[in-house]
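Preliminary data (for renewal application), zinc ion complex.
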Amino acid sequence: MTSNLRIRKADDMHIHLRQGELLAKVLPHTASQCARALVMPNTTPPIVTADDLNNYRNSIQKLLKTEDAFVPLMTFRVMPTTTPAMVKDHKRAGATAGKLYPEGVTTNSEGGVKDLQTLYPVYKAMEEEGLVLCLHGEVPGVFSLDRETAFLETLRTLAKDFPKLKIVLEHATTADAIDTVLKLSANVAATLTAHHLRITLDDVIGDKLNPHVFCKPIAKRPADRDALLKAATSGNPKFFLGSDSAPHPVESKECACGAAGVYTAPVLLPVLAETFESAGHLDKLESFTSRFGAEFYRLPLNEQYIELHRESWTVENQYGGVVPFMAGHRFAWKLSSASSSSKANKTKQTAKSSA
Ligand code: DOR
Ligand code: ZN
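Predicted structure:
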């Protein structure tokens, strides 16, 4: 039985880092487990201009410690008002992707896109600039469990009309979505979250209501969860990690009208190691967390390593006023404390690869 895991640090290709105090609280969890993360732009106000993007990147970088060696990959929101010229500005500002939220589909998606067809010049510009289009793939107003499936026709149309545009269907939650992404070209991929690999709708509402696993898209049926797990552990590069870690203060979750979002960042790699091991595919973990995302985004593989070891530990009930995914759960895999020292590991890796 493996008792130590040494893998390349994760590239989390979908994360909500928030702003201000909450950003300062949540960032260390991601910076210690991930070499890079694609930072979502649904802040308040949203990241719409190149200045917004630069300012947001600065506010993240200011909070990083030198030893973190963490790189935030920045995104902008594709809004009804976005123009091809703005796309070029974003590219110059170093954006990695644009994120499109259909109007009202999730947290802070107000002012989102009502008619995806009207933005064809913007997708064209993104295709030309080599910027990835990240889609929150749900149709608002449709019955909750069917919102993602209803979006898949739009995904097929965009993939057909922009064959060179790289498109990511974010946080896929259904077997239908997996089938669709499998059938489309290599330019279309999907991110999968750690929580959707574990939970179904029953974990949210099947017994007592659990607001801490309420998210958009909502977790679906056991057959959907099984399809996601199969995709994640299949070794197919179209499926890679995007945690969608989405922290909300406990009082915004445990109330009437609770916010959508699951805070997975503090437990990201322990959850995934446990999940892949239970599925009998621990060997596929590293490519899912640390290779396929980079390859899809045409980034060099990150050169930092992290270690986990087999030791049982119990997850805190809260981190800085935010309840993490699987609070109180006893995990089998623990992050080794020295493992986030990227410099030491980098040296080790360099020595290893030149051997
Ligand atoms: O549950 C979610 N929460 N889904 C999203 O798409 C957004 C996120 C958030 O920002 O809280
Ligand atoms: Zn998200």
